[in-house]
């Protein structure tokens, strides 16, 4: 029976079919998906914080409305993804406990501060731009609920990227001070965004198996390269300099070469010691605790409904 189930699973993966929640799947496949989808959900939820920070200080009603919509989208993505992970038999409480205790990972990128208004544009352009690059291939992930969730998530991310780029285009037509703010934000975010794609393929413990299972479709390094190649012309249109003296077109490879990423700094941030890790986690835990009364009320209401139904 189990050899037969394994063969059925392998055939489906080889034929590029979708695995659904009720299908048999190897424990390791399930575990990898729970790990990746829950980390992804946590990233969306923690990702609301660096931008939420600017809602009350947006420079106009239009920018404020856009920013609120975007941060709300991120919250929606998180809930969507927790639901996708729940189809694999893990509970939301378990996942949240992992996040709140500091055991679970979430994207390194959200542990850096957003220092000025230009950061809102750069987070949209570069951080969400990197997120889309990484997430479009996940629409073809072999696990059905994750793949389907990613379609809507990517559409919304595309709006996030465009609003960021547009905000920067406007600032770049402004005063010398505004242009300097944009360049400063690009300088601070560029390298962090390159690291977002994860460790180099050679140092990525999960990649080979995840690619074989059709969870990951494009490797960390290949996505990073695609991101660099796509971003260079956008930077030119914007009129900013990407802070990498080694960044140049390589005619032979037909790609841009780029400099060394600081992986020590990346791992230190992933392991809890980035500039904002403690603040982000504390804010998240407080928000969860402050919402306890809502969960209590919902539970009390549902119990009341049940007792009324049995009367
Ligand atoms: N930040 C934090 N941790 C990271 C990052 C990062 N940018 N990149 C890799 N890692 C972690 C992995 O989670 C893994 O940790 P674990 O073994 O404790 O789970 C470890 O580093 C080794 O990395 P890989 O072997 O490359 O791991 P994986 O195959 O999972 O690839 C990746 C990492 C590319 C992030 C993948 O999980 C993925 O595509 N996830 C879905 C997309 C996502 O989470 N995006 C979040 C940011 S976008 C946004 O929310 C707006």
UniProtKB/TrEMBL annotation:
The lineage of its organism: Bacteria, Pseudomonadati, Pseudomonadota, Betaproteobacteria, Burkholderiales. It comes from Polaromonas hydrogenivorans. Keywords: Plasmid. GO terms for cellular component: cytosol. One of its GO terms (biological process) is phenylacetate catabolic process. SUPFAM superfamilies: Ferritin-like. Residues 7-17 have a biased composition (Basic and acidic residues). Pfam families: PaaA_PaaC (PF05138). One of its GO terms (molecular function) is phenylacetyl-CoA 1,2-epoxidase activity. This is 1,2-phenylacetyl-CoA epoxidase subunit PaaA.
């Amino acid at each position: 029976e189990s050899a037969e189930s394994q063969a059925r699973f392998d055939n489906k993966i080889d034929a590029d079919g979708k695995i659904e929640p009720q299908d048999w799947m190897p424990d390791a496949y399930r575990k990898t998906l729970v790990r990746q989808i829950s980390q992804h959900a946590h990233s969306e939820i923690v990702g609301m914080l660096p931008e939420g920070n600017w809602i009350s200080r947006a420079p106009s009603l239009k920018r404020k409305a856009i920013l609120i919509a975007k941060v709300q989208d991120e919250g929606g993505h998180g809930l969507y993804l927790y639901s996708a992970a729940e189809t694999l038999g893990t509970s939301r409480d378990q996942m949240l406990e992992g996040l709140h205790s500091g055991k679970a990972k979430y994207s390194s990128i959200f542990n850096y501060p957003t220092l000025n208004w230009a950061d809102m544009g750069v987070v949209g352009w570069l951080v969400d731009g990197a997120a889309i690059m990484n997430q479009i291939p996940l629409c073809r992930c072999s696990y059905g609920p994750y793949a389907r969730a990613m379609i809507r998530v990517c559409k919304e991310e595309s709006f996030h990227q465009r609003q960021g780029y547009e905000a920067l285009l406007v600032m770049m037509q402004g005063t010398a001070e505004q242009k300097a703010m944009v360049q400063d934000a690009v300088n601070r975010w560029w390298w962090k965004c390159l690291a977002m794609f994860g460790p180099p393929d050679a140092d990525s413990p999960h990649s080979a198996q995840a690619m074989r299972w059709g969870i990951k479709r494009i490797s960390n390094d290949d996505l990073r390269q695609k991101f660099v190649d796509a971003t260079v012309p956008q930077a030119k249109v914007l009129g900013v300099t990407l802070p990498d003296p080694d960044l140049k077109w390589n005619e032979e490879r037909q790609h841009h070469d780029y400099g060394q990423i600081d992986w020590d700094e990346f791992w230190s941030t992933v392991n809890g010691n980035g500039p904002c890790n403690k603040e982000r986690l504390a804010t998240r835990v407080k928000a969860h605790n402050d919402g306890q009364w809502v969960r209590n009320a919902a539970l009390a209401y549902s119990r009341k409904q049940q007792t009324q139904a049995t009367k």
